[in-house]
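#lab-general

N.A. 3:47 PM
ok so I finally got the sequence cleaned up, no stray characters, all 182 residues accounted for. can someone with queue access submit it? mine expired

B.Y. 3:52 PM
send it over

N.A. 3:53 PM
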Amino acid sequence: MLISYATQRDLALAHGVPESVAPAVPVAIDLFMVWAVRSRRDIALAVTVAVAANVAGVLTTEELAAVGTWVAAGLHAVFPLTVWRMHRAESPERPSESLPEPSAEPEPIKAPESVWPPDDLWQDFADSQPDTAPVTPPSAEDIRAAMSVLESRNGRPVTGRMMADHFGVSERTGRRYLAMAA
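B.Y. 4:20 PM
back already:
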């Protein structure tokens, strides 16, 4: 993919795209191709654009009469086709390999060998300690002190969101803290 990126960037530079913008050309082409394959829209157009950009990049920089030029052009066409194929293989509606024909008679569903969940599953939870100690709300004095610090730091009246962020609680609890300090 780095070779494809470099080829498309060089193509953009060779045809007058400013150097600061040239790296965006291969990124845009690749993102368009990935989007098209994943959304199943404009796939042929996106793959064609990517292949054409890679082939044009090779043909722009080398002599057209050389055999190596055409081999390189074919090689550069492989990159976008590979990306297309890899994303196509992920599609559950379009499997990459043929599925076996379903049998005439379905196999009976067998009961599992063991019972799940095991009987002792909840015992681990019953024996454990709580993750944190119970949280006690701050006193009205603590809230007023936090309000003065937050007000001086932000230069505006304190909101419930600011209190919530300061104490690490929900915004609703932050508003309750403000009401406690009033």
